[in-house]
Amino acid sequence: MHYLTSCRLLFIVPLALLLSACATSPTGRTQLMLVSEGEAISYSKQAYIETVAQLDQKGKLVTDTAVTGRVDRITRDLVRQAEIMRPTSRDWDWEVRVIEDDEQVNAWCMAGGKMAVYTGLLKKLNPTDDELAQVMGHEISHALANHTAEKMSIAMATSLGIGVLSAATDRPELTAAAGAVAATLAIQMPNSRTAESEADRIGIELAAKAGYDPRAAVTLWDKMGKVGGASPPEFLSTHPHPAKRQATLRKLVEEMMPYYEQARAQRLRR
Is 139 a catalytic residue? Predict the structure, then answer.
């Protein structure tokens, strides 16, 4: 089931929140917002710290510098472009970890630039640098477009329900603990197709401007579709993949090639 992104969902939240629960995305669509982006960043950081600590205790954080160094390098290239595209993100505490889980073909980025990629994606797809840049650029774009706060709001309204929201009767924001739970739920929830289209568009541009071939967006999704057979990879199950997606990406490739060629030329001159 695709999560709802319109304010029609507001009938299940307290009336006091009605007037402040709607916002507008970068593309002009209506978003349900029960938390501000600042709150989403704070809650996401707490959830990320807790998640990383648990994974570290279980020995599930990759320490192989050949793997982490590659992911770090590509991510840094993308972050530089993200900060140009959205200057306020320069204040974010960007971070990426590689999680040891060969069955998870997935990656994510929380509000404020807290990221992770699973070894399953790296091993089963064997992505080129250009293809990996498409994955990370796509995930970074969800944060840039404030999709995390939007999904946290949906999680609070649908999964945590009015009981959690009622705990905040004396103030508009939720407790930090409840917010961290919502932030964790948010990265597990599927994005709407509209949000996916926004992230596709922003992500391929970030990658192209960072010097990564936009044509890799198409080959990446070819690989995604072939992994898992009857059981699609987690990345596809949480990122709806309509049949027309590759056709849309091919059109975007044509638009992005000048950015890529300019970035490559600049790199060669260095």
Answer: yes
